[in-house]
Amino acid sequence: MMKLIVFFVVSSLLFSTQFSNGEELESTAEAPAIHKTGGEGSLRPEECPKACEIRCSATSHKKPCLFYCNKCCSKCLCVPSGTYGHKEECPCYDNWRTKEGGPKCP
Fold first, then answer.
1. Which H or E element spans position 1?
2. Which residues pair with residue 103 across a beta bridge?
3. By CB count within 10 A, which of 26, 28, 39, 47 is most buried?
4. Residue 15 to residues 18, 56, 104, 105, Cα–Cα distance (Å)
């Protein structure tokens, strides 16, 4: 009986893991090219607004985020994936700093 319960628990965990990975893959397919290939120069200037819209989607400071993201994207032609972090995907975006030394790009 115990083996049956363990088998059921393990099976349901495996099933739920595969189900959640399927959702992840589905959302990645909708992302712009930067999220699949990345790197400097991976975007065309006309693709920057869409990539920045995704990058700034989770912030409460949307207007300044979009302004600086678009400014950085037009210089670097890339935007890191996700809404936060992953700046190593785009060194130009990561290395552009303010006078005070803080990051310029969101």
1. none
2. 97
3. 47
4. 5, 33, 43, 39
Kindly report, residue by residue over 4-13, the tens digit of the pLDDT. Answer: 565 556 556 5
Q: Annotate 82-93 with DSSP letters as a single string.
A: SSS--GGG-HHH
Within the chain, which residues score under 50 in pLDDT? 19-36
Residue 90 burial (10 A CB sphere; 0-12, 13-18, 19+) = buried
pLDDT tens profile 26-43:
444 444 444 445 667 788
How far is CA 10 from each of CA 1, 3, 14, 18, 76, rounded to the nearest angstrom? 14, 10, 6, 12, 46
Could you give the CA distance from residue 46 to residue 7 in angstroms, rounded to a whole number? 52
pLDDT of residue 69: 94
Give Cα 95 to chain centroid, integer Å.
18
